[in-house]
Amino acid sequence: MNIRIVFICLFISNFQFISAQNSFSNKEIDSLLNINKLKMNPLTPEKGLNEFKKLYHASLKNKYKIGISYSLIGMGQSIGHFKNYKTALSYVNQGKDIANKINNDSLLLYADYVTSLQFGGMRLNKEALKLNNDCFDKIDIIQSEQSKNLFLGLFFTCKAAYSSGLSNNDFIVLHKKAHFHFSKVKHLSYNPSFTNLGCCFKNLNQIDSAKYYFEKALVYSKKNKNSLEIEYANLANLNFDTSNYEIAMKYLDSSNIYSKKNKVFYLSALNYNIYKKIYLKKNDKINAFKMQELELKYKDSADIFEKKRVSESFNYLLESKNVEKESIIKKYKLVNILFIIFIALSIYLIEYFYKKRRILKENFNVQEIALNDKLNQIIDLKQKVLSSYDELISLGKNDDPLFVSLFIELYPDFYKNLIEINPDLTLSEKKVCFYIKLKFTSKEIATYTFVSMKAIQNRKNRLRKRLFIEEGEDIYKWFEKL
To answer: Cβ of 301: how many Cβ atoms within 10 Å?
Structure first.
């Protein structure tokens, strides 16, 4: 139980709740990014996810890249609570890409920290520790002392969780350093160092010290009205181990009140497991059986709750992508309309001036006039071809649905030859072929189609087999000849 509680403490969020309004100015969004106001309960990540969604939509509406990046990283951190780490990382990486483009070092630091949390959740402790150490090296980019102390507290807590081969005394040193920095942060709603130190001393069987820190954690949580279910559960577990069963049951009762209120089903299941053990110690098999049934019930509830939240996260991601695609489609429709108007006006003006010039130069012979007419047509056609090619490249970079149809229109012979070789190519395989024909690198294809480079490389290898490209032959030269 102690390991579970120590790890949960890592996921404390450090950002202010967003008020329930529908729109924000950029200045209001900036105020919501204020890292000094720390009010998020670490056991209610669903609240954080909902608030980050509001901030994301407000920032997207205002085209405010700092807010977009921040909220994407925050959504990733919240989704990580549901153990859906891959989805969480996809959000964080999107936010990090934007932070890179706008050269915001603070957001990049935040992204690295949240990424380390996801690696830790996946038990990739080596990778998580490396990122965490990188965060230590970059801490000076944060100018606010409040913010710096908060992150240092988090970094030391993470280092303790990710490090292997440390003694309990080493863990205590790290958590004391974390506590030192957390104590300097004003308005901190949750300080994990009390709980973590209590767990360390409990592992050393120093019951009095463990009790001292657990009770300090309980007082702190009562004052800030959060995480009470965890602190009561810690004290219940401690008293159970020391055979103080009646006191343990009182703490379990209190823990269950808050865990049920906050829908922390996994904790209720663990509490009922201790109830069951106590009744077995008392040889009360009837109540022990009842507690076992409740334990299984809340385990099932915890599983259902987690699956529901993961489903909501995926649905939200799809909805956001659809909104973005619709926005892009509308934008390009408008661009196309304006382009058509421009071409029509250009043709009209060319024709107008050409007729006027013809009237002024009636003495020109027919051949000379025909030659000039052909020259104008060639120039016009060349402009259209260049414009279409630029448009095709732009559509490809934005993964626009019109990309495929425009490519086929501009390269009909290539498409015909490709289909003749293998008419069963899927749409995604055709798109990769089109990108290769246009000289896009694997990295560019992965970036513009929102998939990993490994996935693109796998598709290229699969295309070699499906298009019968000889091993060792440059795939780009092969497509150039096709």
So the answer is: 16
Q: Tell me what pLDDT residue 229 has.
A: 87
- Record the pTM: 0.52
Low-confidence ranges of the chain (pLDDT < 50): 1-22, 35-43, 312-313, 316
* pLDDT reported for residue 239: 93
DSSP string, 310-335: HHHHHHHHHHHHHHHHHHHHHHHHHH
Q: By the 8 A CB rule, do 40 and 189 touch?
A: yes
Same domain, 358 and 238: yes
All residues at 6 or more sequence positions from 336 whose CB lies less than 8 Å from its CB, including other chains: none
Please give the structure tokens belonging to residue 379: 């120039």
As for how many domains the chain has, the answer is: 3
Kindly state whether residues 243 and 337 are assigned to the same domain: yes
Domain co-membership, 118 together with 241: no
Q: Which domain holds residue 321?
A: 227-365
- Distance set, CA 1 to CA 168, 202, 412, 455 (Å): 16, 11, 65, 39
Helices 453-466 and 427-437: angle between axes, nearest 10 degrees: 100
In CATH, what number is assigned to the domain containing residue 434? 3.40.50.2300
pLDDT for residue 280? 92
Contact 102, 69 (CB under 8 A): yes
